[in-house]
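So, read this over?
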Amino acid sequence: MNQAGIAWISAATRDPRDTRYTWLTNPGARRAADTGRLFDAVVMRAELGAAVLDLLTAAAEPTGAVIAEEHAGKWAYLVGPGSAEVWLAAIGPSDGTRYHYVGHGGCLTVPGPRPYPGSSMTWIVPPGLGTNLTCVTTLAATYLRVESAYPTIRSKPEPTP
């Protein structure tokens, strides 16, 4: 992650200055970032998230920051703040297994700028590489395309923590 990405993602934490200092001395440290001001997040199963990223990349769509949490089997796409209505209109409500939308008043754990080797939480696409946010409309359309092409991904039970 470059300095622009560090500045941007740290601005979403409750104490950006402390976050930047921590990352200077401990670049793998995870931090809690508030959602709803700089970004919201769409959290989905890792296999679905990877397939979505493959399609976005193949179509040369700009992709914002994406976080993977290996132990939970989840990926989080960062989208524009206040995008919940657009997402819900396109996707419909979640039954708890399809996705989780984290918006205003929520919190998302983010990895440090250089996660340690073997860390379960990493940046698949770090912020600071152009656009930091994925267009929620494009993400929703791609998500639905993947979900319909891979119905077994949708019907898998939630992994046990």
